[in-house]
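Researcher: Good morning. I'm working through a list of sequences from a screen, and I'd like to move beyond sequence-only analysis. For each chain I'm collecting a predicted structure so we can compare shapes side by side. This is the next one on the list. No need for commentary yet; just the structure.
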Amino acid sequence: MQLLSDRILNMAQSATLAMAAKARELKEEGKDIIGLSLGEPDFNTPDFIKDAAIQAINDNYNSYSPVDGYGDLKKAIITKFKRDNGLTYTPNQIVVSTGAKQSLANIAAVMTNKGDEVIMPCPYWVSYADLVKLNDGIPVEVKTTIDTDFKMTPAQLEAAITPKTKMIWFSSPCNPSGSIYSKDELRGLADVLVKHPNIYVVSDEIYEHINYVGGHASMAQFDDMYDRTITVNGVSKAFAMTGWRIGYIGAPEKIARACNKMQGQITSGANCIAQRATITALNESPSRVQYMIDEFKVRRDLILGLLNEIEGFKTNVPEGAFYVFPNISYFFGKTLKGQKINNASDFSLFLLAEALVATVDGESFGNPDCIRISYAASQEQIIEAMKRIKEVVS
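Model: Good morning. Structure tokens for this chain:
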């Protein structure tokens, strides 16, 4: 009898976590690794949020919370959706989970049947495809390029739709490309979807506030898409709360209740102290964390300037998040320091071994010609990392 399930044997390991693990191993060996692989702000959680957590501990919040989140947290989420996105939700449409990743896992589990197709504009976040596959769904990749800022067009969406299409999953701002769909661009996609009323949209907006162009748009803001859109968000990125593990959705009530049911059998409610701290985070104006976004923009401009000095790196200007996603196919077929570079994985591993810089290959994001570089690091680390990369590829 086979020990492990086919399900786990067929699941890919998270590429971002795998590269982070390799970088940690090399650090433990004494190597001076610069980690630009993980999507994690290098800022500390703001003091006003930490103070709220300390107060919650002193107030003896130590019991199980409701599966879908405290009522006053759901109220704060409803206020945030209205204030920042113009979206109106009721408490029964909100589910709080242990990170936005669990929110996505819940959605995949409650909505995907065997053979259902889920459209994913490439590049997409590494876990999307495997969450769908885990539930016997079929990811349908829609290829985009750096020349179009990695955005899917309405014509591409229309061409990807089949009678088996159940959902479309995408993020804006996008991990890994930093691309942002404008309101007009979302409207163009919505105009296609209104002709296919059985298709639902999963809009991952976790990087919403890390936006350098302003005017964040949500698919659910359109009246004809509101009842067919699940909006996913959380506090990990904008509030530097990755380890607090709080994500949430605003969704049609039937889908939200299904996610609540699923979560009740898997993890139940999210961490009670983190939930109390999140109430404070969401009730504050996003301007409280603007200093982080301002610094990320400085770093974006810095890393783009340095990458553009390295032959073989083709870049565009990401409008949000804290990643660049350069095309490095120039190096395919070349030999660097005795190593043949056949693909982005080879190149990413070469940079780790020779430049001691951790990045992530783009294949796991659905684009094998690129690598993802996080600039959620100090300016000094960025300058040193780009210097090392330039030296080993010159």
